Amino acid sequence: MNHDQEEKELKELFQQQRWEDERAAPRFAKVWAAAVSRHKRRQRPRRLLPIAAAALIVLTISGAVAIFFKPSANRLDPPALSSAAASITTWQSPTDFLLHSPGEPLLITVPRLGESLLEIPGHDSRGIYANSAQ
11, CA 20 to 30 Å: which among 17, 28, 33, 102? Predict the structure, then answer.
């Protein structure tokens, strides 16, 4: 019986809350009219967008013309260009040796069944790798 009374009280409290919300809420017609008027104000012709797009196009074209047709004083002649390319292709990083590990021959070979550790290429019988720098 207590449960039924609590249910009834909850229903009444929710009904009171609903009435208070309805009284505080604006009427639908008023909200709809405000939305329609805002929408009509936004539909005015926008003249700024085409002007900004045209200015962007003009700036892009003038920048491209300035870059491509600018006389350059620092252009390399063909012999200097080929020597620069050759020096780039033969360059080696000073830290390149750090990319190679002492046990690299063991890491790049696949072990085979029945093969001894002493028969693996690059491995010395004393446990020292043949290709490692000491």
Answer: 28
